[in-house]
Amino acid sequence: MLEIKDLTIRYGNFLAVNGVSLKIGQGQITALIGPNGAGKSSIVRAIGGLNSFESGQVSFLNENLSSIKPHLRIVKGLSIVPEGRGLFPRMSVEENLMMGAYSLQNTTLFQDLMDRNFALFPILKERRHQLVGTMSGGQQQMVAVAVGLMSDPKLCIFDEPSLGLAPIVIEQIGEALISLKKQDLTVFLVEQNASLTTKVADQIYVLSAGEVKFHDTPANLMNNKEVLETFLSA
After folding, report:
1. 160: which of 86, 140, 192, 224 is 20 to 30 A away, CA to CA?
2. What is the fold, at CATH topology level, of the domain defined by 1-77+154-174+185-234?
């Protein structure tokens, strides 16, 4: 569904991403894991059209995205739940979800998408009129996930969804990701949290210093001593 070939990103003289290639198969949860500063968010921003890159190619549904503006990538079915959530704190839960649906082509789906999100996170229905800025970090992350789903995407990218959350909330986010996969949504999970990633992903790319060091199933990576000690000890 999405393919990155030989992606290289520089910030001045700093080489942030060095020849990264990866594939995200339809209906799967594909994960990219690595420490802070490994280049994960640079890759996410390149997919979304928010980062320029020195060389390489990003394709979605067999179409080169290089000439596609960021907002049109959303229309084509590519959604990103960014690190830091990117919500409107002085707006209600419902209003934030409405903002997430701004690019929805089939507006008759709006209420169905709202209902699906409220089924995924029932507490959001209870608090639909609450200002997002008054909610806990875990609840805000649920809102961010729901906002990302309101465009009815084919592929949703989650950038560090567990960051700063309590273990019980991380578990809820993991359950939500598995539920989304069952609904035929393709997921690209970008994370530092090895515990969450290995529980939900079908395949994992391990990134370090801007390069993919390993790529395999969670089970095989968990049996690799080098990977386990260096990258999956969190």
Report:
1. 224
2. Rossmann fold (3.40.50)
